């Protein structure tokens, strides 16, 4: 009799649990299904986006390499057109790299003004990574040594000549050469001396600065 009672109780408990589970499933089942669907859709979407971005980046990279190859083959006009097109519809970092390479190609072609304008524009573009903006200022300044004034060179790179700037050595050298060319020997001496006194200055840059200091001293053009 006790066994029968235990069996009956278990059956009742099982039935109650079954009904409870059904009620829980009716109430929460759609939510669980929705979450599962979202996980599947989200994963698929991420994979699709990842493939899409990788594919676009790869195609832009191929276009950039092709434009670079045209430039190395001396097909400058074709290379510039390819780079300009990549600036407009390239993906990722390639539009910026295309702008930088196009400006360099203009300088190589001898069009200093166009190159300076292009580098200056990149340097002022806040959407461009800071390191590329700084490099563009340096490139513009070096072109301006022979194609501009000391003040123009200073406007490009004097802010980069401070002790905390990684490109300070190139900036100081450009400023020193621009000042020397302009006949501002005391100012030139100051810039070159900053290079030679900086323990982190690359040896080749420090050597060139010392040569310029020796020339200035030999000519007696600065105190």
UniProtKB/TrEMBL annotation:
Protein keywords: Membrane, Transmembrane, Transmembrane helix
Domain Ancillary SecYEG translocon subunit/Cell division coordinator CpoB TPR: 25-217
Entries under InterPro entries matching the protein: SecYEG/CpoB_TPR (IPR018704), TPR-like_helical_dom_sf (IPR011990)
Coiled-coil positions: none
Gene3D superfamilies: Tetratricopeptide repeat domain
Signal peptide: none
Annotated TM spans: 28-49
Protein name (record): Ancillary SecYEG translocon subunit/Cell division coordinator CpoB TPR domain-containing protein
């Amino acid at each position: 009799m006790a066994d029968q009672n235990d069996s009956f109780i278990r059956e009742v408990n099982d039935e109650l649990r079954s009904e409870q589970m059904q009620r829980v499933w009716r109430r929460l089942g759609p939510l669980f299904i929705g979450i599962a669907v979202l996980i599947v859709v989200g994963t698929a979407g991420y994979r699709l986006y990842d493939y899409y971005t990788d594919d676009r980046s790869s195609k832009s990279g191929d276009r950039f390499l092709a434009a670079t190859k045209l430039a190395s083959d001396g097909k400058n006009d074709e290379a510039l057109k390819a780079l300009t097109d990549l600036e407009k519809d390239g993906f990722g970092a390639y539009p910026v790299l295309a702008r930088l390479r196009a400006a360099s190609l203009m300088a190589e072609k001898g069009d200093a003004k166009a190159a300076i304008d292009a580098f200056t524009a990149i340097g002022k573009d806040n959407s461009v990574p800071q390191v590329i903006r700084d490099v563009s200022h340096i490139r513009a300044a070096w072109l301006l040594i022979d194609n501009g004034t000391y003040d123009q060179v200073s406007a490009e790179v004097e802010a980069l000549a401070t002790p905390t700037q990684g490109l300070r050595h190139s900036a100081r050298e450009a400023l020193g050469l621009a000042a020397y060319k302009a006949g501002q020997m005391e100012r030139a001496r100051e810039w070159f001396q900053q290079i030679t006194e900086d323990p982190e200055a690359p040896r080749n840059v420090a050597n060139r600065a010392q040569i310029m200091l020796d020339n200035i001293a030999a000519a007696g053009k600065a105190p």
